[in-house]
Write a structure and sequence with these properties.
Blueprint lengths: L11 H4 L2 H17 L3 H17 L4 H8 L3 H14 L2 H23 L3 H11 L9 H31 L6 H25 L4
Helix pairs in contact: 2-6, 3-6, 5-6, 7-8, 8-9
């Protein structure tokens, strides 16, 4: 389970199967790009806000979902503001924010095991040559690495802050990459040890 991402609960969204939630996420994300303009963005924002309320998730969860992307959104806003106008810049940033919140809503209400089971179930009609178990394993590993990378980044940042290097990007990135590759190597060795090639 992605303990850093999943928020336990008993809401209708928590009880829903992952496949319909992923399908709804796909529909909302596609609609936001197909139907340009503020009306579609407002409808999408209302749907996502309703989902957060239904799942009994607080504003803190929404802000925590947006926090990692805040600098990217700010950069996008600045570029759009330079190239176009404030209205379009606000629309583009708002659309990305709604997309992030919609994806976070699915992640916050679905455990990693439910994701994997849903993907495995959706592949049951796939041809026999499709490696269903490997695909499910790969996705579960990707999902597991999300909170793991966050934990490693926090540890590296604290260590470099103690050395006065927290504002040096290289001092953060190099140890993060090295530790991530080392962990990936350990995971691959564990998989091979279990005869899962």
């Amino acid at each position: 389970m992605l303990t850093d991402l999943y928020v336990p609960g008993n809401s209708p969204l928590h009880r829903a199967r992952p496949a319909p939630k992923i399908l709804a996420l796909f529909v909302i994300c596609t609609a936001l790009f197909v139907f340009e303009g503020w009306p579609s963005l407002i409808i999408g924002a209302v749907l996502v806000a309703t989902g957060f309320l239904t799942a009994r998730l607080s504003t803190r969860h929404a802000l925590a979902s947006l926090k990692p992307a805040i600098w990217i959104l700010a950069a996008i806003f600045a570029v759009q503001l330079y190239l176009e106008d404030p209205a379009l810049a606000g629309f583009v940033v708002g659309r990305f924010a709604v997309l992030i919140l919609a994806a976070s809503l699915v992640t916050l209400t679905t455990t990693a095991s439910e994701f994997v089971d849903g993907i495995h179930a959706s592949l049951k009609y796939a041809p026999k040559w499709v490696p269903k178990a490997r695909i499910a394993l790969a996705i579960s590993l990707c999902l597991r690495f999300i909170p793991l990378l966050k934990t490693v980044l926090d540890e590296v940042r604290q260590a470099q802050r103690a050395r006065g290097l927290d504002r040096n990007p290289l001092a953060l990135l190099v140890p993060l990459i090295v530790r991530t590759l080392k962990t990936a190597d350990e995971v691959s060795e564990a998989i091979y040890a279990r005869s899962f090639d």
